[in-house]
Amino acid sequence: MNKSMLVGGVLGAAIVTAGGAFATYTLVDRGPKFAEVLAVEPVKETIKTPREVCREVTVTRQRPVQDSNRIAGTAVGAVVGGLLGNQIGGGNGKKIATVAGAVGGGYAGNQVQGRMQSNDTYTTTETRCSTVTDTHDKVVGYDVKYDIGGEIGKVRMDRDPGGKIPLRDGQLVLTQ
Asked: How does DSSP assign the chain, residue by residue?
């Protein structure tokens, strides 16, 4: 092999390698480009969940009334009042006192029976339920304010991007 051929081969290989390196350097992206994140604000949605809450409560009830017109109390009061009125006075005064005693005793007996019936109560326990609504906030996205070479923009993303958003051909890369 002669010397000029060897030098030509080495020189050709060096030129091809340098040309390939230069072509690769101009075609390959020169490192990642990013948009600077200026602000991130979470977007929230309020979730409302109803649920039933039950508790035991003590309740006082009135017993059922057997004599709602209070006839027994009125009758007993009238008899007792009439007997007491009959003990007073004599002649026509005795009759008037008996009638007045019967009327007054009937009224008093009626009122006494009414108080006794209203105070005739019992206590029981009942379950009372009501619906309450629990609320909580759920993050549904993020409003992101960013800067690309002095141009400010805003985009909604499904995640917090951190401090930078990658760019491809000058556009935001929003998917992971």
From this structure: --HHHHHHHHHHHHHHHHHHHHHHHHHS--S-EEEEEEEEEEEEEEEEEEEEEEEEEEEEEEPPPS-TT-HHHHHHHHHHHHHHHHTS-STHHHHHHHHHHHHHHHHHHHHHHHHHHHT-EEEEEEEEEEEEEEEEEEEEEEEEEEEETTEEEEEEESS--TTEEEEETTEE----
Burial of 104 (0-12, 13-18, 19+ CB in 10 A): middle
Q: Which residue has the tokens 């003590």?
A: 58
Mean pLDDT (the chain) is: 82
pLDDT in tens, 28-81: 555 448 899 999 999 999 999 999 999 999 998 888 877 777 777 777 777 777
Q: What is the pTM of this model?
A: 0.43
Burial class (CB in 10 A: 0-12, 13-18, 19+), 154: exposed
Q: Cα-flanking dihedrals φ and ψ of residue 2, to 5°?
A: -95, 165
